[in-house]
Structures are given as C-alpha cells and as structure tokens.
Amino acid sequence: MKYHINEPMVDKACKQQVDIPVQDTPQAQARRWLTDLYAGNCDPKRREEFVLWINNNEANRHAFRHSLEVWQTIGMTDSVVDWLEQCACQDLLVPLIPKPKRNLKKSVIWLSSIAASIILIVVSGVFHNPDKLDTTTPKIAFNSPIGQNLTIVLSDGSNVTLAGNSSILVDISQHARRITLQKGGAYFDVSHDPSRVFSVTAEQLQVRVRGTAFEVKRSTDNAIKISVHRGLVEVADLPEQVATDDQSATDEQVLQLRANEQVRADNNGTFITKVTRFDSETEFSWLKGRLIYDGIPLKTVVIDINRYAKKPVVILDESINDLTITASFNFDQIDQVLAGLASAYPIILTEENDRKVLTKQ
C-alpha cells in the first residue's frame, strides 16, 4: 500500500518549528522514529508527523540518516526502506536523505502457516543511552509450535530445522555465529565459512563447527544428545564461567565427532556416554515427519512424542520408564500408537482432560 501526503502539508512542514526538550536530542528522536517505523507502529497520522519532523531541519535529517545506516548494517530496515523509497519517489522527503542501500543478507523463514512460530527480536540495550547507538547485532529467538517442525534459513546461509516445541536464540555477527538451544531439539546444516565458527550452546555444552550437519537435542531428564550427520564437529564441556564460544579456555574437555557418531552429556557438560555409532535414517527420521525407535526406553519415546502430541503424555510410574520400545509412526499417528503401546506392553493408558497418563499395568 502506498502512502500519499499532499504537497501543501510538506511545504508547511518545512516552515514549521518543532520544540525539542533539552534532553530529547535529534539522535534520540531519530531512534524512536526508526523503531516505530520498523515495528509497524505508525498509522497514517503518525507517518505525517514523521514527514513533518524530518523535513523540519538538517539536524533531524542527519540524525535519522545516521540511525538508518547503523540499523541497515544489522539488516533490520526493509519495511522502512520500502516506505522511504515510496516517499522519495513522491518528493515528500527532502533530497538530503540518500536512497537507502538494502542489506540483502536477510533471514528467510519458511512457514507453513502464520501461527507456525513466534519470532522475538531482542534489542537489548540498543536505546539505553540516548546519545549513543549500540551497533551490537540483536539476538533473534525462534520458537516452533507443538506438533510441527520449523525450518529457518539464517543470514549466513545455514539451515536450521527445529523439532516441535523447540526454541533457539540466534546471534550472527561479522566474526562469529552463535546459537543457543534453549529448549527441545534442532538440526543444523551449516554453511561453510572458515572465517567464522558456528557454535551451538546448550547449558554447559557447546558444539563448534565451520561447515557440517548435526543435531542437538535436549531432554527433560537433564541430558543433551549430539548426533553428527555429515562432517566433523567439536563438542566442548564448557567451564561454568565460560558461556561463549571462546576457544581459549584451557580447562574444557573437547571431543571430536564424525559422521554417524553421537554422544550424550548432562546439563553440567559432563559426558555421560562414550562416543557411539547410530543409524542416521532412524535418528533423523523426524525431519521427514516420522519417529522411529528400535529398543529405545519408553521415557525417551515420550519426550519425543510430547513435541508433537495434542495432549502431553505423562509417565506416573517410574518402573515403566525403561521399557524398551520398538515402533515407527508419523506425527499424526501418535494417538493410535499410544493405544497400541497399552495393548502390547504392560502399560495402562488413561486420558484426562488436559493430558494422557501412562502407568504400570
């Protein structure tokens, strides 16, 4: 939708004087305007006020130009750029504002529906100091819904697939690519970049690569599993005081994993299993909408099921946690599978209003 402003109003804007409070500098105003424009908080009346403000004096134009250039370096202004270009074509803005250059390295999010994820942009401290603009790249959180995987293409070209009910925090800069797995599991197909390490941190465990494909999964039993699909990865046990991808730490334990190798660790970063081999078709079947198990403990199966089940499944009797399960099913067959488990194993399945309960028969 194009936004139109009558020419007489712009002429009036050039003559109008705007009172600026002592503490309300053009830089602070410019940052607020850019924030409002980017967030979509400007209705037609508010945008008219913006045109009045920016055409009022050179200080305003200089402050906005500077803020826009800084924000463009972190790729956050496409919607603002589109609108400014429209205004420039209509001669609504004075020619002292250069045509913005687009930052083409944008994250592309493939969603099967609008409700497939909630994307939270965290700009922590960017506007804390009214006289300085922090150019730190903002972290971006991605959350997948229960019952559905979510695939994301990051700005560096890497692909990330979140399992259902999972969450990551992305921080990509010119020097590093940092991901924090906050919940659930994710598969990473990393774009090769020798100059920037790609790291995934979960609690006190960190995976570091420069180009490969691997999976990291967190579980409710305080365990983290790393499985490598392709290439070579480093898995580091981080000291508690080191929560970044600083490779200079001398007291961390590092393992190297190759294709079809995996390891498990607890939330403290302590490795709780040796490096083992696995079947990739079974391990990564969830990427194709299917769950496959061959002699896997029931508690592990339930953890995966709860990423996709309409109602959460709860095991109330710990004595059945380690029942070994062999099964293969699609995400939309979970209800039938639970009923089948109750028939094939010494399990009682009880359905309550808000959950399904498994107990010993």
From TrEMBL:
Segments forming domain FecR N-terminal: 29-66
GO terms for MF: sigma factor antagonist activity
InterPro entries associated with the record: FecR (IPR006860), FecR_C (IPR032508), FecR_N (IPR032623), Ferrdict_sens_TM (IPR012373)
Tagged with keyword Transcription regulation: no
Superkingdom field: Bacteria
TM stretches of this protein: 108-127
Domain Protein FecR C-terminal positions: 290-354
Keywords, comma-separated and alphabetical: Membrane, Transmembrane, Transmembrane helix
Domain FecR protein: 147-234
Keyword Transmembrane helix: yes
The protein, known as: Putative FecR protein
Organism encoding this protein: Paraglaciecola psychrophila 170
